[in-house]
Each structure stands twice: as structure tokens, then as C-alpha cells.
Design a protein that fits this description.
Number of helices: 12
Structural class: alpha+beta
Distance between the termini: 28 Å
CATH superfamily: Chorismate synthase AroC
Radius of gyration: 22 Å
Order of helices and strands: EEHHEEEEHHHHEEHHEHEHEEEEEEEHH
CATH class: Alpha Beta
Number of domains: 1
Shape: globular
Number of strands: 17
Largest sheet: 5 strands, antiparallel
Length: 400
């Protein structure tokens, strides 16, 4: 992920030794809340519909560079999460064997799964064993980006910004599209809930749908919503297409495997309504300054935050790995065949909650440093304080 201030590169295969990330552009002096990061990694592993892989892994991040005495140094950060399952795949994934081992031959993938990167990636890179594609295309990579996002959450929290997500729908079941979720309801959710939803009845119905899909050998997708509060007006820009914050959020969120659509505010419903039903009217009072009584724009207008809560939704398709195997062909002979089956989840919507939070936090932290950036946290604080004073939001005795 390449931002204007924070650049993130990741590497690692699903069944390789580890996942790694290098984070460039983080200022010095930022306290690293390791427990916050570990909790988000644990959240990513739980959830109704998760597969057997998560019973093997115990994701824990290690910082290899860029931190001393609990604070960032301003130099690149290096993060690592070991794959415990590597112990079971060393022969299959051996990086140095002169030729494929018998175990690797047995695990060779030549029947691409419809809806996965298998065939497209094999054609692009010329692979005759599609395991070379699926190992990197796997959503396992999101574990290390979850850790990076949790680091960004900690940075944003220093300025009163909080990002939280929840499940709206799974398999067509859940909250109505027009139902607004209040921030207080999100705060009451247990972060380790196997299906975090603000409506108990909808939650139970979604759990039952996942269990039915599991029995049928099917998979299910759904809708996740992430909300950020405390975001000031002015992040992002309308001056260039690639600096628009909605474009940056959409790019980051679309990078989550299985996500096929991203919505800001009421973007999808707004297409069917008239302008007077969509746009958030503007009011002013000396006590509140500029304010709105609605937030259909989801906190973004013209690619710039407007001070209202930021609201985004992601739409995930059902996973491409089904026990009820779909039709495909052999890449060697072209003959019809059943698609390959890899150990997989029935539904990945729940882990997508914390992944979406992570990527929203990364984009916001990047935009924050783009506007208020400095080499040290104190520089960022000073710039933010000056900006708030200019907007009339900060008294002399008020500190973020």
C-alpha cells in the first residue's frame, strides 16, 4: 500500500515461514501499544464460519526494527508474524529443493477455482502449478496488514480518533440497508464477539445462515461497515484525483480479498434518490459552528472529510473455495474437472471487520500525516493544534 506519507510493503506466502511488513514514513516518538495490536490479531482469527487454519495459528507480531523503549524511531518499521502451519508445509513450500518434492507434487494445483486468482495469476506469471499463485493471493496476507492498521489506530487514538466496525449482513440476512447504526451501539459490542452485530435477532439469523451453508458445502459473503469518529474536517483533497480520500479508501478496501464493492455513506442507495433526499443540509450556531443533522455523505464531500463521522461499507462475495466444488478444467489438458479444494472458511465476513478497520486507520493516518506531518509526534501535535485554532475548535487550555 502506497500512501503520501506512509508506505507499506508486505511479503510472505500463506504456508510459508512468516508474513512480514516494512512500514516507512511513521514519525518518531509514537508510543506502540503492543497489546492493542495483539488484540486485533486475535480478533481477526475468531468468527463464525472460520476454518481449521485458525485453530493452528496463534498470530503474534514481533517488531524487528524501528522501535526502541516502546516508541517509534522515525526509521522504517519491520514487523513479522510467524506461520505456525509452516511446520506442516516445509516440504511442500521448500524454497531450495532442486526439484519439486513428492509432497509438493502431491499438493500441486492444476484445477483452478472459479472466482479465485488461480487461473488469471497462472496465465499472467506462467505458472504450471497454481499453488504459486494461491499462496500469495490468499487472505492470510491480511494478518500482517491488520497489525500495521492496529499500529495506525494507536497513532490516531492520540488525537481522539477511533475506528470501529461491525457486520451488517451475511448471505442477504441482517440489518436493512437504510438502518443507521449509532456509535454508542458499536462501543457496546464485545471486540471478541464471533459475529459482532448491533441487532441480536439479526445476529442469530446470520449465525444460522452460516451453519446451514457449512452443512451444504457452500460459502457466504456479506456486508461490513466501518465507522471512524473524531475525524476533523480537511483530510484528503479535491485538488487531484488521487488525493481524494474516498478514492484512497476505496483502493485500500478493495484490496481485501473477496471485496467486490465499496460504499461511502449512503452511496449505493443515493443513486436511486433525488438530490433533496441525499445531500446533508448545513447549519451554523456560535456554540456548535458548522454542523449537519444528517450524514448521508458518510463524512466525505469532494474527497475531503467534513468533520462528521466517516462511514464506509465493504461488500464481500462468497469465498471461492467450496466443498460443493464448481466446474473447471485442467490447465494441462483442458479437460473438465472439479475445482481444487483448499482448507478454507465458510464465511470470511467477520474477520473482514477488523481488516476493514485496519485499512481505514492506515488511510486516515496517512492523510493525517499528509496534512499535519512532521518528523516527530510533537511536530504533528503542534500542527494539528494550530489547525484547530484556525478553525476555532481549540481553546488555549485545550489539548488533543
Amino acid at each position: 500500500m502506497t500512501g503520501f506519507r506512509i508506505r507499506v510493503l508486505t511479503a510472505g506466502e500463506s504456508h510459508g515461514p512468516a508474513l512480514v511488513a516494512v512500514v516507512e514514513g511513521f514519525p518518531a516518538g509514537v508510543p506502540v501499544d503492543l497489546e492493542r495490536i495483539q488484540q486485533d490479531l486475535r480478533r481477526r482469527q475468531v468468527g463464525t464460519g472460520r476454518g481449521a487454519r485458525m485453530k493452528i495459528e496463534r498470530d503474534e507480531v514481533r517488531f524487528l526494527a524501528g522501535v526502541r523503549f516502546g516508541r517509534t524511531l522515525g526509521s522504517p518499521l519491520a514487523l513479522l508474524i510467524e506461520n505456525r502451519d509452516w511446520a506442516n508445509w516445509q516440504e511442500v513450500m521448500d524454497p531450495w529443493a532442486a526439484e519439486p518434492t513428492p509432497a509438493a507434487q502431491k499438493r500441486r494445483v492444476i484445477h483452478p477455482r472459479p472466482g479465485h486468482a488461480d487461473l488469471a495469476g497462472g496465465l499472467k506469471f506462467g505458472h504450471t502449478d497454481l499453488r504459486n499463485v494461491l499462496e500469495r493471493a490468499s487472505a492470510r496476507e491480511t494478518a500482517i496488514r491488520t497489525a500495521v492498521g492496529a499500529l495506525c489506530k494507536g497513532f490516531l487514538a492520540l488525537f481522539g480518533v477511533d475506528v470501529r466496525g461491525h457486520v451488517r449482513r451475511i448471505g442477504g440476512i441482517g440489518l436493512p440497508p437504510d438502518q443507521t447504526v449509532e456509535w454508542d451501539a458499536l462501543q457496546e459490542l464485545d471486540p471478541m464477539d464471533p459475529l459482532p452485530c448491533v441487532d441480536a435477532q439479526a445476529r442469530q439469523a446470520m449465525i444460522e445462515a452460516i451453519e446451514a451453508a457449512q452443512r451444504a458445502g457452500e460459502t457466504l459473503g456479506g456486508v461490513v461497515e466501518a465507522i471512524a469518529v473524531g475525524v476533523p474536517p480537511g483530510l484528503g483533497s479535491y485538488t487531484h484525483w488521487d488525493r481524494r480520500l474516498d478514492a484512497r479508501l476505496a483502493a485500500a478496501l478493495m484490496s481485501i480479498p473477496s471485496v467486490k464493492a465499496v460504499e461511502v455513506g449512503d452511496g449505493i442507495r443515493a443513486a436511486d434518490l433525488s438530490g433533496s433526499q441525499v445531500h446533508d443540509e448545513i447549519f451554523y450556531s456560535p456554540e456548535r459552528g458548522f454542523y449537519r443533522t444528517t450524514n448521508r455523505a458518510g463524512g466525505l464531500e469532494g474527497g475531503v472529510t467534513n468533520g462528521a463521522p466517516l462511514i464506509v461499507r465493504i461488500y464481500l462475495k462468497p469465498l471461492a473455495t467450496l466443498r460443493k466444488r464448481l466446474r473447471t478444467v485442467s490447465i494441462e489438458t483442458g479437460e473438465p474437472h472439479e475445482a481444487a479444494f483448499e482448507r478454507s472458511d465458510v464465511c470470511a465476513v467477520v474477520p473482514a471487520v477488523v481488516i476493514a478497520e485496519a485499512l481505514v486507520a492506515w488511510v486516515l493516518a496517512d492523510a493525517w500525516l499528509e496534512k499535519f506531518g512532521g518528523d516527530h509526534l510533537d511536530d504533528v501535535r503542534a500542527a494539528y493544534e494550530a489547525y484547530r485554532r484556525r478553525l476555532g475548535l481549540l481553546r488555549s487550555d485545550d489539548r488533543p
